[in-house]
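Hey L., structure's done. Input below.
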Amino acid sequence: MLTAKPLTAAASSVTEVLDAQPAELRQGEPSTSGRADHAAQHPSIARAAATLSAGEVVAIPTETVYGLAANALSAEAVGRVYAAKNRPADNPLIIHISSLEMLASLYPPGWSLPPVYEPLVRDLWPGPLTILVPRSPLVPDAVTCGLPTMAVRMPAHPVALAVIAACGFPLAAPSANSSGRPSPTIARHVFADLGGRIPLIIDGGPCTCGVESTVLDGLRSPPAILRPGGVTREQLLGYPGLGALQVYRRDFVDAALEAAPTTPGMKYRHYSPTAPVLLLDPNPQPPTAASSSNGHQPSLSAGQRHQQAGQHSGTAATAAEVEAPAADLAARLRHGAEALLAELAAAEPPAASDTADGGGARRFALLRTSLDDVASGPQAPSAGSAPGGHANGNGQATDAAPAPALPYEVYEYVLGHVSRPADVAAELFAALRHVDEQGVEAIVVEGVQEGGAGAAVMNRLRKAASRVVHV
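Output:
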């Protein structure tokens, strides 16, 4: 059934929101063989395909996050994506396809899929994995930013597959948010950022993965994950040709990639709410340039040594290695959060805050990963108090005479437990947006270890954070 939701955009143009629930489109395994004519008859899918065929943009759900889609073969249509998002012009887009035949139609003349990709496409598509391939002559510079490669994936969400198949052409689709904001995982997030700036949003329900796709460059030697995402390094390591798989910034850096990234998420600050994000990072602190040159390494806790061994051994950490320090890790995160909240409450409030004139309790948010057996989602606000007086920029008390205790409120949101990073990933962007809507002064986030889905979580949080505190 076609449903236009009664949402009003602040801008002069109108954004329509139509429902297309996955259960209405497809049963059983997704088809990757070509056009899905029965799905194309769904009125919301037909409207989306017609809008995209006319050169406009449409926000569509995927299993990772909502994407802002346009015809990947039209420079003019893709330009509307950049304009709606206010996206930097040197940040390339990912091309989304609905079938292997559509992928083959984009190959450069004489090129075929290399062996390193064949089993990945067979086993992990449709799904949150993007691969780099040589650029098609059909794809305009606006998609690839003039680079010789293009990023391609086949989404697993039935709505996304149905829209692409109904169009009959690939779609270029970054996340459907204002550039730099947390990625949208429900249609309401899209409307909050882009309402009045785009003509159509297809509401397919919440995204299940919650973070963007993994980007794999199998053309380089050794192959490398350029952006961690919904498919983990541990999942990829067992495939032929990926035994020496590297992760960008963990195993290597590349000045050329920094200057001209081949995939989104590498160059610019991303995923940031309005309130500053302060990240509690339980992972080993990278050595500074000075410590690298003199041979001294920072001291690590037992839990950090367990994880570092798993990260650099060339194989995934065992379950025992990950779970053994879990209690220690949760305790470190809880203590770090308490200390950081007390520091924030004792410091001078920002001039623009509601409490800068001394009126009312200050508000902070705490996104938690240290609590087990607590359901994910927002919790009831709690009250706290910090010692009177103010602190300096290092959180150290000044010599000023102490004042009465300063009240503050903490809006807690449980992301999941640190031992289950995939749960944390699914909640992350929704949580950042939710607590930001409460008008908090700052957002403290308890991080996770980088094994498995934790690599994608920490990648996004480090991009969002204005300050990182190692615990």
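The first strand starts at residue 16 and ends at 19. The two ends are 51 Å apart (CA to CA).

-- N.
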